[in-house]
Amino acid sequence: MPSIKNTLSAVAVAAGLAAAALGTGVAVAVADPPPPDMSVGEVPPPNAPPKTAEFWDGEPVVWTHMWGGRWGVWKNDQFITLSSNINTGGG
């Protein structure tokens, strides 16, 4: 005959497994959106500075709105800036 202690232990284990199966207390992973098409970039605004070059280190120079808007290149999924912020003129 099962004892109360064994029954409570079994219920606790079952409740823990059910909670884990339902995801209770588990953070949901959300993927970041993919980076923009690295070879095209975005359309520069009318107040954008002149394009610094067509290519840099074998990669096309493109416009991005990041950091206030800049010219730069995508290299190894990282953006390397080649111009200053058009709003502040700073780095």
Describe the structure.
With 91 residues, the chain is an alpha+beta fold. Helices cover 21% and strands 19% of the residues. The chain has one domain. The strands form two sheets. Strands 3-4-5 form a three-stranded antiparallel sheet, with no helix packed on it. The protein has a two-stranded antiparallel sheet with strand order 1-2. The longest helix is centred in the N-terminal third of the chain and has 19 residues, at 4-22.
Number of separate helices = 1
Weakly predicted, low-confidence segments: none
* Number of spatially distinct domains: 1
What is the helix/strand order?
A: HEEEEE
**Number of E-state strands:** 5
**Given the helix and strand composition, which structural class is it?**
alpha+beta
Strand percent estimate: 15-25%
Task: Kindly report the oligomeric state of this protein.
Answer: single chain
> End-to-end distance, in Å?
76 Å
Which percent bin holds the helix content?
A: 10-25%
Give a quick account of the main beta sheet: strands, pairing sense, barrel closure.
3 strands, antiparallel
Order of strands, widest sheet = 3-4-5
Shape: elongated
What is the overall pLDDT average? 74
The radius of gyration is: 27 Å
